[in-house]
Amino acid sequence: MALNPRDLQRMMKKMKMEELSGVEEVIIRFEDHELVIPKAEVTRMQMGSEVYQVSGNAKKRERTDVEIIEIEISDEDIQLVASQAGVTEQEAEDALLESEGDIAKAIMFLKSK
C-alpha cells in the first residue's frame, strides 16, 4: 500500500522527522579508516534521543591525522615584519603564517628572497 505525500508528511511530523537540507557529506571515522558519503540524504528523528538516518553511496578512505595549528598574529607583528623586511603587510602576514608566528624567522625569510 503506497502512502500519498500528504499522509507521509503527516506521519513524519508525528514522528518528529525532518530531512536536513544542505548536507555536503557525512564522514564516519573508524580507528584506521573513514567512510565518506558525499551528497548524503540525512533525516533526523526525535525518539527520546536524536536519531539520524543517512542514505547514500559510501566510499572508504584511509584515515590520516592532520594536526591543526592556530596562530594568532597581531597587527603590530605584521607592521614590524613589513617595515624591517621592506615588504607589503600581506607579504609580511604570509611570512608570519609560514614561520608559525616567529618574527625573526619571517624577517630572515623575506630578506633572503
What would your notes on this structure say?
Helices cover 35% and strands 29% of the residues. The chain has two domains: 10-62, Ubiquitin Ligase Nedd4, Chain: W (Single Sheet), CATH 2.20.70.30; 75-111, Orthogonal Bundle (Helicase, Ruva Protein, domain 3). The model has no long low-confidence stretch (mean pLDDT 88). The N and C termini lie far apart (74 Å). The radius of gyration is 25 Å and the shape is elongated. It has helices at residues 5-14, 75-85, 89-98, 103-111; strands at 17-20, 25-29, 33-38, 41-47, 49-55, 59-62. It has 113 residues and is α+β, with helices and mostly antiparallel strands.
- Beta-strand share of residues: 25-35%
Give the tally of β-strands.
6
Low-confidence stretches: none
**Total domains, how many?**
2
The CATH superfamily name of the largest domain is Nascent polypeptide-associated complex domain
CATH architecture of the largest domain: Single Sheet
Taking strands numbered 1, 2, ... along the chain, how are they ordered across the largest sheet?
A: 1-4-5
- Can you identify the CATH class of the largest domain? Mainly Beta
User: SS-based structural class?
Assistant: alpha+beta
Q: What is the mean predicted local confidence, pLDDT?
A: 88
CATH topology annotation of the largest domain: Ubiquitin Ligase Nedd4, Chain: W
The major beta sheet can be summarized as:
3 strands, antiparallel
- Tell me the overall shape: elongated
Rg on CA atoms, Å: 25 Å
